[in-house]
Amino acid sequence: MKKIYALLLAAGIGGQLFAGGIVTNTNQSAQWVRLLSRNASTQIDAVYFNPAGLVRMDDGFHFSLHNQTIFQEKTVTSTFPTLNTDTYTGDVKVPIYPSFFGVYKKEKLAISFGFGINGGGGSAEFSKGLPSFEMPYSMLPGLVSSFGIPTTAYSTDIYFKGSSIYWGAQLGGSYAINDMLAVSAGARLIIAKNSYEGTLENVMINPTHPLVNPTGAMMSASAFFTAIGQPGYAAMTSNMVVDATQSGTGVTPFFGINLNLNDKLNIGIKYEMNTKLELTNESEPGKDANGMFLNDSTFRSDIPAILAIGAEYSVMEKLRVSASYNLYFDKNADWNGREDFVDDNLFEIAFGAEYDVTDKILVSAGYLIGKTGVNQAFQTDIDFSLSSNTIGFGGCYKFSEKLSVDLGVLFTSYKDASSDKTYPAPPIPYTETYDQTTTDIAIGVNYKF
User: Fold this and answer.
1) Which helix (H) or strand (E) holds 232?
2) What is the pLDDT at residue 20?
3) pTM (2 decimals)?
4) Distances from the Cα of 308 to the Cα of 21, 263, 268, 270, 328, angstroms
5) How far from chain centre, in Å, is Cα 197?
6) In a designed cystine with 64, which of 44, 181, 231, 314 is the match (CB 3.0 to 4.6 A)?
7) What is the mean pLDDT of each run of 10 residues along the chain (449 residues)?
8) How many domains does one find in the chain?
């Protein structure tokens, strides 16, 4: 039963938190939130989405600061027969999700800096746990009844809060070979940290035992097992606590090409290499989930390579449309063997349009489809990947030639998925279903001089 905390610790980093792949966050700017297709950008957020396109900007210094407020609800239902409930809900709230871009452009050369959250970024709270947390305890009535001691009910208090954040700081250079072709190269330093706090307390059962509990009232499971001479079960049902962190660093090299074919059509291509990321556990004795989260132990949590392609086309002077495609090479990442449960790499296709209402006001909207490639064996209640549909809209207001503000809102609905599973001992078949929704509100301030 103490393996439950291995699951608790994983819950802080599992699943698709925001836009992007299984691990990667691509919601890096307010422009992206309002348009959803930025892979051919030639504006300030091209620092992340299309670095080679920065050579299309005006000469001078450009700066941009963004923040997003994100809400996500995760729902897991389970048909496991002995659970007290079949529905579990977790809330992810991210009030501050910042990113910053800076560019110096001079003739054919652009030097850029970017800072943001490239993975994680959320704080997930599970006030009632998840099915996998509770299953071992839900089987206690059957276990005790098999001893010849009638038992019909159980209860337990499970609390877990996990936060995960992968900060990314990148530096890049872009150069225009000629009026049509530009290239870029750079690297991003990833600093990852996960923090966990959790308790599992008050495991109770109602055994009817003539000496220990003759009335059959709810009592401490650990105390009961101690009284009947079962110290192993007593230890497994005693209170547990965890207070631990994981940390590590990695480097993501990236390369890009921008093709400005004519005054109307621009194409951006970027490739980010796989980021080798090894995280190290940090915990204290007594707060390491009974030894399941040993201090100084390590595990791999790579950020997969990404191929990003985009095109922007000016239909008329005031109207522009764009399309973007992202391919995440999940099958080539090292996730301690879980990559073996990926049948196809996740991909995204997005379309966007923006229209200049006036010289100062711009409005935009976009649509994004995400298709995951994991199989049933990958999906768990603490770490699942779902296909999705996202709509975004918003606008930009230009206070002057130097200062502008972007606003955007998006809504993501995910296609629920199910996984047929079997509890190992005793073997019990059951089915889990996973679903989630996301809302993102963004603002960005852009300045140049």
Assistant:
1) helix 231-236
2) 78
3) 0.91
4) 12, 22, 8, 5, 9
5) 19
6) 44
7) 43 52 93 98 98 97 97 93 91 91 98 94 75 92 96 91 90 97 98 87 96 96 96 92 89 98 96 95 74 77 96 97 98 93 97 97 98 95 91 98 97 95 93 96 97
8) 1
- Which residue is listed with tokens 């660093």? 249
Q: What residues contact residue 321 under an 8 Å CB cut-off, 6+ apart?
A: 312, 313, 315, 351, 352, 353
Is the peptide bond prior to 427 cis by the omega test (within 30 degrees of 0)?
no
Q: Are 210 and 228 in contact (CB under 8 A)?
A: no
Rounded CA-CA distance 267/41 in Å is 9
Domain of 350? 4-448
Q: How many CB atoms lie within 10 A of CB 178?
A: 8
SS3 135: helix
Question: What pLDDT is attached to residue 11?
Answer: 41
> 156, 198 in Cβ contact below 8 A?
no
367, 348 Cβ separation under 8 angstroms: no
Q: Are the C-beta atoms of 297 and 280 separated by less than 8 Å?
A: yes
Q: Check which CATH number belongs to the domain holding 206 and give it.
A: 2.40.160.60
Query: What are the Cα distances from residue 263, in Å, to 73, 312, 316?
Result: 43, 11, 11
The tokens of 56 are what? 């299309």
CA 13 – CA 11 distance, rounded (Å) = 6
